[in-house]
Amino acid sequence: MRIILVGVFLVLFAIISLPLYLVTWLLGKKDERLQVAFSQKIVKVAFRIIFILAGARIECKGRENVPKDEAVLYIANHRSYCDILAGYITTPTLTGFVSKDDLKKVPCVSRWMRFLKCLFLNRENPREGMQTILTGIEQMKQGYSVFIMPEGTRNRQKELVPLLPFRDGSFKLSTKTGCAIVPVAMKNTEKVIRHHFAWFSPTKVSVVYGEPIYPKDLTAEEKRHMGAYMQKKVEEMLENID
């Protein structure tokens, strides 16, 4: 029943999004930041409705740790497609997610992702990947935060920890801008959607935002092994979630 409700909502949203898309596009002609803020509000509402229809609820802690007057790099563990929904529902700043390049080919989705300042990463093409990083750096300098899952792919292991190795390249967005890194731990997102969208399960999703970490405050050794250092931080946060 829940899968039907979510499916009906997605169809309705696709229809409603057409005039909303036009309004958002017009806002961008006047003020790009207003366009991003408006887009994020729409997406937050849509994702909240999906969670409600799926029977899932979110418990979020630590949002007060996130600096509100500057761009930050969110880094989180990756268990499910629902990570993105949980991230957008809870993030307190204007934020674009780093996503796989394939989503550029999905018209309705890619339009909104561009409004949200999302970044499309092609891991198979180093040159395109570097251009994505450079674009992300420019966006962060303009005050837009970036949310990335440094594992690079969904972690399908039964246990939450250990995580898949965090890729060091993910942290260039922070080291090149000096912005804070905010570790994020997500638990139970994989329990919301089961068996390749065959059904949704009622569950409590936990999202915890950690203390910001600035590259300038790290030792030379920690900077050299940024991926491993941040992975340990997220793993410790996951182990402390009730």
Explain what the structure shows.
The protein is α/β, with parallel strands linked by helices and 242 residues long. It has one domain (2-239): Glycerol-3-phosphate (1)-acyltransferase (3-Layer(aba) Sandwich), CATH 3.40.1130. 45% of the residues lie in helices and 18% in strands. The protein has helices at residues 2-30, 32-54, 82-90, 107-115, 126-141, 172-175, 220-224, 226-239; strands spanning 56-61, 72-76, 95-100, 119-121, 145-148, 180-187, 193-194, 199-200, 203-209. A hairpin with a 4-residue loop joins strand 7 (193-194) and strand 8. It is globular and about 50 Å long. The chain starts with a helix and ends with a helix. The relative contact order is 0.17. The model has no long low-confidence stretch (mean pLDDT 92).
Helix content: 40-55%
Strand order of the largest sheet: 1-9-6-2-5-3-4
Number of domains: 1
CATH architecture classification: 3-Layer(aba) Sandwich
For the largest beta-sheet, the strand count, sense and barrel status come to:
7 strands, mixed
Rounded mean pLDDT is: 92
Q: What's the helix count?
A: 8
Cα distance spanning the termini: 29 Å
Structural class: alpha/beta
Uncertain spans, ≥5 residues at pLDDT below 50? none
Top-tier CATH class: Alpha Beta
Order of helix and strand elements from N to C terminus: HHEEHEHEHEHEEEEHH
Q: Tally of extended strands?
A: 9
Shape: globular
Radius of gyration, in Å, reads 17 Å
Strand content: 15-25%
CATH fold-level assignment: Glycerol-3-phosphate (1)-acyltransferase
Write a concise synopsis of the structure shown.
This protein has 242 residues and is an alpha/beta fold.
